[in-house]
Specification:
The protein has 111 residues and is mostly beta strands. It has strands spanning 2-10, 13-23, 26-37, 43-52, 57-68, 72-81, 86-87, 92-98, 104-110. It is globular, with a radius of gyration of 16 Å.
Length: 111
């Protein structure tokens, strides 16, 4: 199963998180997430990487970009395409409405 994680914190904001897999008491790298923030300390991007044990390197997996307006939050999801060596155009967009207390309510989701 999955076990714990290792986090990198800068200015009280998590900038990276690594998830490890436990196999018979041995820990193996599994997933790594990196985060970027705007000037208001809101997440603007979350990028995921999978561990490639053959290459012994982190390889891109997906990216989630976050856009904010006064009343909405838009999440745009894109998968990594190893053939083009880049992210595909957004494959899923989800829009959340922010209510008076800034709680997010889902408005629409498209694929």
């Amino acid at each position: 199963g999955l076990v714990g994680s290792e986090m990198c914190i800068r200015d009280r904001l998590m900038t990276a998180k690594t998830i490890f897999r436990n196999e018979d008491g041995h820990l193996f790298r599994h997933l790594r997430y990196t985060y970027t923030y705007d000037s208001e300390n809101r997440v603007t991007s979350k990028e995921a990487f999978k561990w490639d044990s053959v290459k012994e390197a982190w390889v891109p997996y997906f990216k989630l970009d976050v856009e904010y307006t006064d009343s909405e939050v838009e999440l745009n999801y894109a998968r990594w395409n190893s053939r083009t060596n880049g992210y595909d155009s957004y494959t899923q967009t989800t829009v959340y409405e922010l209510n008076d207390s800034n709680a997010a309510l889902m408005l629409a989701s498209t694929k």
